[in-house]
Design goal:
five-stranded mixed beta sheet, about 60% helix, about 5% strand
Amino acid sequence: MLISIRPKYVFVSILVLEVLLHWNIWTRDIMGIHAWRQTQTMSVVENFAFEDMNILNPRINPRGDGDGIFRMEFPLMQWVFAWFYRWFGAHLTIARVLTFIISLFSVLGFYRLLRCYELSRSTSALGAWCFAWSPLLFYYSVNPLPDNLALCFAIWSFGFLKRHQQSGSTRSVAAFAILLALASAVKLPFILFGTAYLPILFRNLQRPALKGLLVHPLIIVANLLPTAAWYIWVIPQWKNTALIGGISAETSFNYQEAIENIWGVFHSQLPELFINYGSVLFFLFGITVFFQTKGRLDKYASELLVLAAVIAFYLYEVNMIGMEHDYYLFPFVPFIFLIVTAGMHAVLSNKRVWLQYLGVLGLIILPATAYLRAFQRWTPMGNQKPLMANKEELKLLTPNDELVVVGNDASTHVYLYHLGKKGWTFEQNWLNASQLSDYIDRGAKYLYSNTDFVEQEESISQFLGEPIFQKDGITVYPLKKLSDS
């Protein structure tokens, strides 16, 4: 029962269902899972839009009394979003819609990639359907993270490489190189997709030709040079030694934690969050199809090499990624759904009619199972709840141009973003009198606190004026110098 369906009907269905299933999210504020990274991203967007549009100077809110310039990934997505904020105002719905457009291009790119494997239009469209309803992608498809743009570039890049494998076209290898460079600039781990070219290069060594041995590699290297220059410049400025150093950053590598994280990703996140329960049958059949394919190591050398590189990256960063940072695993997603598509084709063309109908049922339930797995991820968590409940009042409580101190906020970004303020943050009550005194000397005017510690610790409380807000565990104090009291 190979389904014959026009791709445009599949894509229109994806568009309509995605819009409807995200209906309560388009205007929802940033909250829930990974609000930390989203608020950091949107702080950069807002600061581009309303402070400085220099793309080389992304700025964050936890800046103390400094300029806030903080360079990580190349902020292409944040900079483009900022233009829309300048034109239409600071409305989060704009960022959600722009992120959604990026996600739609990822789906289209995956369809184009599948077509490179000589699959029919119907099969490729249904493979893209499965891809679109990954609960992981469904959640992030409207959440502003640069990883979305990097994934989109990487998928299109790999598609052009597959075309180059078929035609040897210089134009295709140039498109691969440009998109690979953009993907890597926006999110560095996607540089690993560049290993896909190595099997092609090795084959070219066996039948030497000027283009294959010199021109094409030079095109790739030349396009990657700006990305390399960016990271050579900014990585020394990074303070997250765990991210840079991976397992080597730990004085004693926690093997038990690593095994628990790997097992958690494999047995829990892979089937329910990455694949979708409705596509698990396809994934299992896809693995079988792969091992039954003759000459598979040679035929899929590029895919296997990238997959091996991504696995190595994951193992290197396993405890830093943990179970929380699922978006770090975006580089796995295209390869997971290449397997899913192969399995879907095998199920729908199986001689057992009951299996075919089971496959059709799996395809039908994908939107519902994606929604059910993801919808609770937009629920505010922990101390986000009182913040969101009182956000508008807290924002208007103090002038936006006054520096503030905020805590506890382990993210350093969530509170300052929602308050629309700049200044300092602390976590786990890690604030002492000398720090607070220094902040006040440098211009801090108010303390936003969600902890009783600041009142109970006499060395801290002496800097606090009478509260101007006290509700739901959040208290706002004017700050004073001791000489003023």
